[in-house]
Amino acid sequence: MLPEPYRLHHRAEFSRTVRRGQRIGRRDLVVHALTHTYDDVADVDSLIRVGGPRFGLIVSKAVGNAVVRHRVARRLRHMCAQVVDELPAGTDVVIRALPGAATADSAELLRQLRSGLRKLGLRTAPEPALGRTPAGERR
Q1: Range with lowest mean pLDDT among 1-5, 65-69, 103-107
Q2: Strand pairing of 91-97 and 29-35?
Q3: What is the 8-class DSSP label of residue 134?
Q4: Strand, coil or helix: what is 53?
Q5: Which of 122-130's residues contact partners 24+ apart within 8 Å by CB, and which partners?
Q6: pLDDT greater than 90 at residue 101
Q7: CA neighbor of 56 nearest in space, from 115, 99, 2
Q8: Strand 54-59 to strand 29-35: parallel, antiparallel, or no bridges (unpaired)?
Q9: Based on C-alpha coordinates, what's the Rg of the chain?
Q10: What b-and-e string marks burial along 19-34, b requiring 16 or more CB atoms within 10 Å of the CB?
Q11: Looking at beta carbons, which pairs linking 129-135 to residues 24 or more positions away fall under 8 Å?
């Protein structure tokens, strides 16, 4: 479960993130992200914000019936909880599930989410695997 301070609630927050933020598409997800700075004087909520990054989910009827949509949303919330420590504190992220998300496994969705966040410049590249140097040679 994603704790309360890490969720987007209001339509205005979703709209602002989707319209003013960056977007990257993946096979089963579209990731929208907006990083807030202290220079955003026009945004009142940026001054009273506390906590880390916030996440919002969009899972439309195109994904499937209610049971499938709720299953996809639960899986995405669990993935957001896994990547919350990897993002800057002032970031809003909206994840839009595409129809393929209903049949994709969780590991693939997590890989797509992390890949999208990395392409948007919000998280660093993964560390090299144990036993290998950055160039790929064995230690």
Answers
A1: 1-5
A2: antiparallel
A3: T
A4: coil
A5: 122/33, 122/35, 122/87, 122/88, 122/91, 122/93, 123/83, 123/86, 123/87, 124/86
A6: yes
A7: 2
A8: unpaired
A9: 16
A10: eebeebebebbbbbbb
A11: none
The 10s digit of each residue's pLDDT in 31-90 is 999 988 655 545 555 445 556 799 999 999 999 999 999 999 999 999 999 999 889 888
What's the whole-model pTM score? Answer: 0.79
Residue in the block written with tokens 């909206």 = 94
Whether residue 91 contacts residue 122, with contact meaning beta carbons closer than 8 Å, is answered with yes
pLDDT score of 46: 46
Sheet holding 54-59, edge to edge: 22-25, 29-35, 91-97, 54-59
Comparing 8-17, 85-94, 111-120, 125-134, the range with the smallest average pLDDT is 125-134
Task: Pinpoint the alpha helices (H) of the chain.
Answer: 11-20, 45-48, 66-83, 106-119
Residue 57 contacts residue 91 (beta carbons within 8 Å) = no
